[in-house]
Design brief:
Strand content: 15-25%
Number of helices: 11
Largest sheet: 4 strands, parallel
Radius of gyration: 20 Å
Structural class: alpha/beta
Order of helices and strands: EHEHEHEHEHEHHEEEHHHH
Strand order of the largest sheet: 4-3-2-5
Number of strands: 9
Distance between the termini: 48 Å
Helix content: 25-40%
């Protein structure tokens, strides 16, 4: 077990339904999640939603500076009293609204955690906004969300998150976690993934337009791109290209990049 903390029971902090809290209670799973980080290209790690620090204590054993961000004041108080070596690195903030440059400046850092199901997709979107600073991201999601992020084109579950994440990161689904390792147990399985930023993660196209095209395409995923992208007011001769006869789930991220390059001369990006 990790050092510099006091032993505690899972019952010390009450899980709050409105925060989507399911406290991990399995030490082996916590250690496995901590081990998903390669600790390369960064010296700092941010854990989102540490709760009572079951994962945190294993992160503290790693040769990195650990920060935690927690919106639940009861959990923050527990961490401050039990994890003395985290003093000054416990941030009582809402991850989705907090400007992390106040903590890390322009330094690189990794993100990990047992993410609340109700905001897990939003966490990934914010991570993508900060991709310049985040070479690695790992953690636990609802299984179907973790699978979707790592899914390849051609699948019914392949979608916006799949394309946007895989354009910038290598996505690996690592292992499945049963409900029994949580308190309270969720009604579904969980899944742990790892995202490793690609060496060349800058796209050869207008990146804001790329995001816009991917989101617009999947917002009407049953339609062909010829119909779902009508709002871009593209010329008819361009829309006659064969790629516009495809549905969005048929295109890999590289094809979406090529599509963006085709559309760039005709569309105004969201700059």
């Amino acid at each position: 077990m990790g050092k510099n903390f006091k032993a505690s029971s899972v019952g010390d902090v009450r899980a709050k339904k409105h925060l989507g809290q399911h406290f991990l209670k399995d030490e082996n799973i916590a250690a496995k999640i901590a081990d998903t980080l390669s600790l390369q290209q960064y010296s700092k790690v941010l854990e989102i939603g540490p709760g009572m620090g079951v994962l945190t204590k294993y992160l503290l054993e790693k040769p990195v500076e650990v920060h935690v961000i927690e919106i639940d004041s009861e959990s923050v108080e527990y961490l401050e009293n039990n994890y003395l070596h985290l003093r000054g690195r416990i941030h009582e903030k809402d991850f989705l609204r907090y400007d992390l440059t106040e903590v890390f400046g322009e330094e690189a850092f990794a993100i990990t955690g047992n993410f609340p199901y109700n905001i897990s997709s939003q966490i990934v979107f914010k991570m993508l906004e900060m991709r310049e600073q985040i070479p690695e991201f790992s953690g636990m999601f609802q299984k179907e969300v973790a699978k979707r992020i790592c899914e390849k084109e051609g699948s019914k579950t392949y979608g916006i998150l799949s394309v946007l994440v895989q354009a910038f990161y290598e996505a690996e689904y690592l292992f499945t976690v049963p409900p029994s390792v949580f308190n309270p147990p969720p009604k579904v399985d969980s899944g742990v993934l790892r995202l490793t930023r690609k060496e060349n993660f800058h796209l050869e196209c207008d990146e804001k337009l790329f995001f816009r095209i991917v989101k617009t395409s999947f917002n009407q995923r049953r339609k062909t791109l010829r119909n779902s992208l009508k709002s871009l007011n593209l010329p008819d001769n361009l829309r006659e290209d064969a790629i516009f006869g495809s549905r969005p789930e048929q295109l890999g991220f590289q094809q979406f990049i090529e599509l963006t390059k085709m559309i760039e001369p005709y569309a105004v990006s969201d700059k």
